[in-house]
Write a structure and sequence with these properties.
Elements (H helix, E strand, L loop, with lengths): L1 H21 L6 H12 L4 H11 L3 H10 L11 E6 L2 H5 L2 H11 L14 E6 L11 E3 L2 E3 L7 H6 L3
Parallel strand pairs: 1-2
Antiparallel strand pairs: 1-3, 3-4
This protein binds FE2/S2 (inorganic) cluster.
Length: 160
């Protein structure tokens, strides 16, 4: 508990530092949120509260912005982001089976998208612009195309 309180205080100092770069600027919220996410990896509630206090913007307005833009994340994500394409070209070439294989390889339970060790987060995309590689996934900035379920363990093992 004490450790958590200390962390929150430390994070508030960081937020003050971030906000000081944008204070007085109109439209400071977006760059502050982006910088905070960059610093913390995601936007936990205590960070949003600190931003609300520093920028004097109601917390509900901040939540409105954070939940509107897909670039912001309220939950801690894994070190490696596995983006699986479920667009039409990938779907017809077996993307659903690939996703099933990834989920089972990462031992993700129903409703989970991040492994308990925060090594991987699985995201579903609608087309990642490389349909000629279908079925395709991205891990961080790397593309893996013409995938099959039996290639999935080898690809994931590169990031373990
Ligand atoms: S549909 Fe999968 S990359 Fe376009």
């Amino acid at each position: 508990m004490k450790k958590k309180k200390k962390q929150i205080q430390k994070d508030s100092v960081k937020i003050r530092e971030i906000v000081s770069k944008y204070r007085g600027e109109s439209g400071a919220l977006m760059p502050v949120l982006q910088a905070a996410q960059e610093a913390f990896g995601y936007l936990p509630e205590h960070v949003l509260q600190a931003i609300s206090k520093e920028l004097k913007i109601p917390l509900s307005n901040i939540y409105g912005v954070v939940t509107f833009y897909a670039q912001f994340h309220l939950k801690r994500r894994g070190k490696n982001i596995v983006r699986c394409c479920l667009g039409t070209a990938c779907y017809v070439k077996g993307a659903k089976e690939i996703i099933g294989s990834i989920k089972s390889e990462l031992k993700l339970k129903p409703g989970e998208d991040t492994t308990p060790d925060y090594r991987f987060t699985l995201e579903i995309a609608r087309c990642i612009g490389t349909c000629f590689l279908a079925p395709v996934i991205m891990i961080n900035n790397d593309y893996y195309g013409n995938l099959s379920t039996n290639k999935v363990p080898g690809v994931l093992s590169l990031y373990r």
